[in-house]
């Protein structure tokens, strides 16, 4: 399994042609208390860089973008009942959705963990 | 270069480094760097509802108005009963523009002698919003007659201590404050600093607002924070607390196009003023109080968990009937709440409407405000 990161503070863990997507710890800290998450339904097609999910914190609504194109396999149903999972476990149980990649080539250009850490430190 | 490209100069307040040292995340608000949160909005919100929260509201404008018949002059631009205000008592009022729209909302206190502003007995202390203070000052200069003197106390900081245990914390430093009733104010000494303290606030809880010289702001903030009941609270929780309390936020729920009747602020226009008029837009506003305004500010409970934010359109079927002006998630009720304006024929309690949130229709029900009961302490109230 390889994990990549985006400049929009999403992580994508890829295993074969399936990937799991969520927001980083930095993202959840910036958003503050998360009170609502809307994840895409299975079967939905998402495009790289386009809106795929919505996160509402006490302060504001934010779009979550698909780091790569593909078809949604599963949205994390646990976030509906307990949206705070995205704060407390953003990189584990608080994942947003799983998708099948339509173009693995899109992974090129995403950051690895070291590059993402350097990117965040520079913010 | 377009106007919006001109970088706004963001100023710092007296407690800037104090907030940063306490872990405050700073944002630009009303032209100042201010803390949006420390440990988190929900935790800070709950702390204020159960203990005592310390807010820095030094961005607000602190004014005094001195001179004979200042009360009558104020009544030409405020629709409240200013003449009937006795020394040491304060009221919420509305600064009205020439057409009767709301230019700002404010607190006005009739000062007793011996106040720390150096004004005479019967002069007035007025606290206005930070984002509007410069326009307010210009308008007041324009509207008030020459012999009156308006002073802007830009050298004063303003703190708010809010919550059910605010009285315990503050009374330990200044015992007399426990004897103030809601909407009363007086001069006290806190940690050796001369302070003007009122029992008032913007959270729906009991609490105090404390005006002190800016050079002493850190010493007073430290003395308050040393009390076990007190934690620093940011602007984020200030907003969620006031929304639960049903209190409007100027620039969002109130603006210069809205009159006091549409804003459902009838308590700010008492019987005598409705009978006598004599404030801008009186004829229209009084008519609206009698017969109903075309639209009205209401509270809304949103079904589900997704908040409806400012700007969202309110529908009754296909018909757009209003707009959300403030909306968020209520940490106390654990549901989304909002306030907004709807056409008056849709404003009755329990009316079911819909709000368009990002292309999705959420069910919204007109609900009484405050959403969370206010807990003001009125001494000797019967």
Summarize the topology.
The complex is a heterodimer of chains A (123) and B (382).
Chain A: E1 2-5, E2 10-15, E3 18-23, H1 25-31, E4 34-38, E5 45-46, E6 51-57, E7 61-65, E8 70-75, H2 78-81, H3 85-88, E9 97-101, H4 113-121
Antiparallel strand pairs in A: 1-2, 2-3, 3-9, 4-6, 5-8, 6-7, 8-9
Chain B: H1 16-21, E1 25-29, E2 32-37, H2 41-50, E3 52-56, E4 61-66, H3 70-75, E5 90-96, E6 102-110, E7 124-128, H4 133-143, E8 149-152, E9 156-162, H5 166-173, E10 185-190, E11 193-198, E12 207-213, H6 217-225, E13 230-232, H7 235-244, H8 271-276, H9 282-291, E14 295-302, E15 313-316, E16 319-330, E17 335-343, E18 352-357, E19 360-367
Helix pairs in contact in B: 2-7
Short summary of the structure?
The complex is a heterodimer of chains A (123) and B (382). Chain A is 20% helix and 37% strand. Chain A is an alpha+beta fold.
CA distance, first residue to last residue of chain A: 28 Å
> Based on DSSP secondary structure assignment, what is the total number of beta strands of chain B?
19
Report strand order across the widest sheet of chain B: 10-11-12-9-3-13
Please give the domain count of chain A: 1
Biggest interchain interface, per-side counts: A-B, 13 and 17 residues
Number of H- or I-type helical stretches of chain B: 9
Describe the global form of chain B.
globular
| Sheet having the most strands of chain B | 6 strands, mixed
Q: How many alpha or pi helices of chain A?
A: 4
Average pLDDT of chain A: 95
The proportion of strand residues of chain A reads 35-45%
Q: Which structural class best describes the helix and strand composition of chain A?
A: alpha+beta
Low-pLDDT parts of chain A are none
CATH class of chain A: Mainly Beta
Question: Any idea of the CATH topology of the domain at 7-57 and 155-244 in chain B?
Answer: Gyrase A, domain 2
Q: Report the CATH architecture of the domain at 7-57 and 155-244 in chain B.
A: 2-Layer Sandwich
Instruction: Indicate the percent of residues in helices of chain A.
Output: 10-25%
The ordered string of helix (H) and strand (E) elements of chain A is EEEHEEEEEHHEH
Q: State the helical fraction of chain B.
A: 10-25%
